């Protein structure tokens, strides 16, 4: 979304959002009509949604894009390790994944681009990787990503079967025990790992407080938005520029080890007596 907005703001492209139905599924007929419009440069559709778990029919959508002569990119970050990634069967022009989702080191990713596809590199320089991505290659991380892919693919069938059974049992119990609960996303076309619900009339902060009381850790914000600091159900003695930092429970020694990380604590800060450091970054800092 941000990349598309960058093209709109800086380069003057027109960006159209592909509509989805109430389950988050792309409307194929509307998508085909959009592809038939003049001057369509590229389409990008997420393979599997990380919020509600809905899985798109990428082969069918890719066939529509191919027939219209439009390159189709798919964000398969959430699908890696759980859904088939055979690019020839999917029919996509480009596909991207991120290593940390499948056990590879953070900071390494993979972009598949179909042979013969012309595109402008994001990074220019020494011409490494045939000029597609200049800069010295991180061989160790590339090998780690390839190894992780091989491992998850080897055990994918068994893992999918086991986790899908757990997911279905979880969904059944939630819907049976909480009559007002609403399952979001497609009922069957969903990731094995995702069960998403809405609880009408319920305060999210109250749910988090009750989960914490029962010894369960749960975030309010989704993990990919760790750049924002939101107030959490924890007694925090100070605020930074009006924004409440996230809470992280840790020992006092661990809190001291982070004391040199931005932002710095006030000089009069002391760890609370309950062993909670009172604040901390959910991610690795800004």
Question: Key terms for this structure?
Answer:
alpha/beta; two-stranded antiparallel sheet
What does this structure look like?
The chain is α/β, with parallel strands linked by helices. It contains 8 helices and 6 strands, in the order H-H-E-H-E-H-E-E-H-H-E-E-H-H. A 4-stranded mixed sheet has the order 1-2-3-4, with helices on one face. The two termini are 21 Å apart.
Count of DSSP strands: 6
Residue-averaged pLDDT: 81
User: How do the strands line up in the largest sheet?
Assistant: 1-2-3-4
Order of helices and strands: HHEHEHEEHHEEHH
Cα radius of gyration in angstroms = 22 Å
Helix-residue proportion? 25-40%
Q: Which structural class best describes the helix and strand composition?
A: alpha/beta
Shape: globular
Give the distance, in angstroms, between the N- and C-terminal Cα atoms. 21 Å
Low-confidence stretches: 226-263, 271-286
Largest sheet: 4 strands, mixed
Count of DSSP helices?
Answer: 8
